[in-house]
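Training component of the fellowship. As part of building independent skills, the fellow (R.M.) carried out the full modelling exercise for a liganded target. The chosen ligand was pyridoxal-5'-phosphate. The inputs are recorded below so that the supervisory panel can assess the work.
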Amino acid sequence: MINTIPEVKRKFNVEEIRSDFPILKRLVNEKPLVYLDNAATSQKPQQVIDALNQYYTFDNANIHRGLYFLSELATDQYETARLKVKEFINALSASEIIFVRGATEAINLVASTLCRARIFKNGDEVIISHMEHHANIVPWQLISDRKQINLKVIPITDDGDLDLDAFKSMINEKTKLVSVVHISNTLGTINPVKKIIEIAHSCGIPVLIDGAQSVPHLKVDVQELDADFFVFSGHKVFGPTGIGVLYGKTEYLEMMPPYQGGGSMIRTVTFEKTTFDDLPGKFEAGTPNIAGAIGLGSAIDYLCQFDRNGLTLYEDSLLKYATEQLLQIDGLRIIGNAKEKASVISFVIDGIHPYDIGTIIDTDGIAIRTGHHCTQPIMQRYNLPATARASFSFYNTKEEIDKLVKGLLKVKKIFA
Ligand SMILES: Cc1ncc(COP(=O)(O)O)c(C=O)c1O
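Fellow's submitted model of the complex:
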């Protein structure tokens, strides 16, 4: 019997939630940890840690091959995790869920296999945006070894919104795919992906959505969006590292050749010819990250105890509060003021390098990200070497934002 996502909703209480995440109790530099780097990776609730522990302590075996108890148990848990992902993003079928290492591998898989499927011809175009993570830029450049694919880049406004008119004018008969980020990990912009998909589909063009930052913040429904591909990473959504998801519509996944060859993805092998497994096996060569998938399933269970919209509203309140408080700091400028934003704030302070900001507040146990955030084109767009970035999850509090502000005032004092 398969257990899918629980129906009953747990009441939101931030203190109770914090106690589910053991790392939030630790000290850093003798101060309570203030973890504000959730866009890089999220922390893990005890139940995810327990699921990994349980698997390795009691249930470890390889999957899809053994006819003995443990192998069947591990297979059942792995496939149950796939079903949870299917429900979580509302895919039509579990066979449209491919387990991969993360968003990066998912995009590489799509780029490489579409290229080998001869869907791309020399001179074809892929439209991305100026706010893509490197994971949605470099894979398209790599396939240029095999096919000469031109990247077209949707510009962004000074506030960090996509220029949709420019997007519409870029589409032409050479456009083969649109691949855009749902939420920018640097600017926090929530892109109107449903609209983008509608526009692309009206011209018969498939769309890939990079959901690495949206899945932790928003309830995602791939059928409602009508996304052709949707990718995300387990570690940003309270699950383990090394596991992620490629969702693809069956019609595309059927058309694409395997990404890697090896065990599990085959039906028959001779030295002359190999026939491939059905979906999703065709794309899961070798022993997969079994524990990772089980841990991701547990993270989905954890998240789905709550009303997701309630979590989003709470994060929105943190975003609003943090924006107001940070803007009180003289010389602080927020990079990314889009109309629709998730709880990610990039900022710079006049005359102080972001690395200095990050290093100094770390002495007070405050973890933020500094650098280009794997979005160098955004830094070029705003003519900046780097930014500091605070990104909030539903286990963060206004008190933690106050500590961040206090830390930044201390930095300013040091540099005064
Ligand atoms: C928007 C976006 N896309 C893709 C990625 C790549 O994710 P991963 O490194 O987990 O593959 C990230 C990671 O920061 C991201 O923020």
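The panel noted the following from the submitted structure. The chain has a mean pLDDT of 96. The first strand starts at residue 27 and ends at 28.
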